[in-house]
Amino acid sequence: MERIANTPCSGIELFRASDGPGLALPFACQGISCGFPSPADDYIEQAIDLNKVLIKDHESTFFGRVSGQSMINANIHQGDVVIIDRSLKPRNDCIALCLLNGEFTVKRLEISPTRIVLHPANPDYKSTLITPETDFSVWGVVTYVIHKTW
């Protein structure tokens, strides 16, 4: 991944998605039970290329490493990697990477005809109402979170 230099960042480190050759990894295509155990297959039937699954448009897709705790109840934690697609139109209730007064922040968007509000997913943080005086833009929509569980 290529780090994006001189990007105005606070709370996230950005990297450009590579459009190089993919990496096919073993894939259990029959599904993995999260309920009652199911008989295990003796072999893996297919391969999966995560670049093809997670990235729709290489030119507009970026990876970001998260810093901070404001989105923990959306299962986005310190050190997680978010995948951001700049070609997607932000919609109400999506999670987006926003540029707010010159700094990046990841928040859930509330978009209505009369207002835009940025909501954290942690009760220790306050929501932000976007006013005409606010220097604000949606930089991209978060499409996936890569989260280490241990």
How many extended strands? 11
CATH fold type: Umud Fragment, subunit A
Oligomer: single chain
Shape: globular
Taking the alpha carbons of the first and last residues, their distance comes to 24 Å
Tell me the strand percentage band. 35-45%
Give the SSE string. Answer: EEEEHEEEEEEE
Describe the main β-sheet briefly: 9 strands, antiparallel
Helix content: under 10%
Highest-level CATH class: Mainly Beta
- Gyration radius, rounded: 18 Å
By secondary-structure content and strand pairing, the structural class works out as mainly beta
Low-confidence stretches: 5-9
Query: What is the count of DSSP helices, taking H or I runs of 4+ residues?
Result: 1
Name of the CATH architecture: Ribbon
Strand order of the largest sheet: 1-2-5-6-11-7-8-9-10
Number of domains: 1
General description of the model:
The chain has 150 residues and is mainly beta. The protein has one domain: Umud Fragment, subunit A (Ribbon). Helix content is 3%, strand content 39%. It has one helix spanning 50-54; strands at 2-3, 12-16, 24-27, 46-49, 61-66, 81-85, 95-100, 103-111, 116-119, 128-130, 136-146. The two termini are 24 Å apart.
